[in-house]
Amino acid sequence: MKTEIQGRGYYAEQMVVDYLTQQGYGICARNYTIRAGEIDIIACKAEVVAFIEVKMRSKRYFNLSLVVDRAKQKKIIATALHYAAKNNYTQHVLRFDVALVEPNMHDSTFDITFIPNAFTASERVL
Fold this sequence. Notes:
Strand content: 35-45%
Number of strands: 5
Strand order of the largest sheet: 1-2-3-4-5
Distance between the termini: 34 Å
CATH architecture: 3-Layer(aba) Sandwich
Structural class: alpha+beta
Mean pLDDT: 86
Number of domains: 1
């Protein structure tokens, strides 16, 4: 049985999947997990494989982009490299994105802020 937090996380991920699909991406995997870490969504479009970290908060009380710290980035990168090698994506562009899901301040909907190239394998951009 999913906890309330897991349920909200799944809901946020599904909103991002829907957003990505509307943008022409194919969803390659969700919640890809190995010992090194976990990636919420892996999406493909043309020669790009995007590894997407989804962050959701129920209130707008701080900048969500700050929660993907360097340690989390390292785990995502290691997991992404494993996935790319395992699935023969070695000739593709690997991109690390962040999707921020926050409540809309004017109604009961949620806003998605999609940040492509939020960080790279060699340096922190956020």
